[in-house]
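Just curious. Invent one:
>
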Amino acid sequence: MKQYLTMTKYSISKDMVGSTEAQICFLTDRVIQLSYHLKTHTKDYSSQRGLRKILGRRKRLLNYLNRIDTIRYNQLLNKLGIRGIRKNS
C-alpha cells in the first residue's frame, strides 16, 4: 500500500503509477530504507548487494529520463533532493 501511495504521489497522473518518475521515487524510498538498515547491521552483505543493485537501476532510469526530458529530470531531482548523474568529461 505504501508503495502505491508513493508512486501515485510522483507519477504524472493517477493512472500512470509505472511512470519513470514514480519508479525512481520508489527506488529512492528503498535506498533510504536500506541505508538506515545498514547503519545498524553493517555486516549484512546481502543487503549491501541489494542496495548496489537498486542504485544501479535508479541510475539507469535517471539517465533515461535525462535523455528523454531534461525539464522533468531536473524537477524530479529537486523534489527528491538527490544529486544528478555525473557526466564523464
